[in-house]
């Protein structure tokens, strides 16, 4: 956030073109980004790939990570900050997620409920059940 309370996004080193269906990216410090990873990405990185730092990326995985970002903004803390980095992988790949309660503010109840809805459809265990980009865009547009 800027000093004028304007949100700023930075650190786009892992960004990919929107039209890329799947792209391999090098993750040198996966523990630094594990808090926002989808369960299937964690599984590929830490179980199937072993020491390989090349992990396929796709839109459904990014949707999950976006849900984590929305959660982080709503709760104003790093996801899974109370769990050790190594345990986050076990926690998430077993279907566990961050807790979604206690941030409903009477003044902003509609926005917070919309955030909850986005978070929950972004965090679906089965990637194909996660919200698609167009539906996500429309949900966000409703908040403006």
TrEMBL record:
SUPFAM superfamilies: Protein kinase-like (PK-like) (SSF56112). One of its GO terms (molecular function) is protein kinase activity. Keywords: Kinase, Transferase. Residues 1-144 form the Protein kinase domain. This is Kinase-like protein. It comes from Gigaspora margarita.
């Amino acid at each position: 956030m800027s000093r004028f309370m304007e949100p700023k996004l930075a650190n786009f080193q892992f960004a990919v073109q929107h039209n890329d269906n799947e792209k391999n990216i090098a993750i040198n410090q996966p523990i630094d980004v594990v808090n926002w990873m989808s369960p299937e990405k964690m599984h590929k990185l830490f179980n199937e790939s072993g020491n390989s730092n090349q992990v396929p990326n796709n839109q459904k995985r990014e949707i999950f990570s976006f849900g984590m970002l929305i959660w982080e903004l709503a709760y104003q803390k790093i996801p899974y900050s109370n769990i050790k980095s190594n345990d986050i992988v076990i926690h998430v790949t077993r279907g566990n997620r961050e807790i979604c309660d206690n941030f409903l503010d009477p003044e902003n109840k509609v926005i917070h409920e919309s955030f909850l809805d986005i978070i929950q459809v972004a965090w679906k265990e089965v990637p194909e059940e996660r919200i698609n980009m167009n539906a996500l865009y429309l949900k966000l547009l409703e908040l403006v």
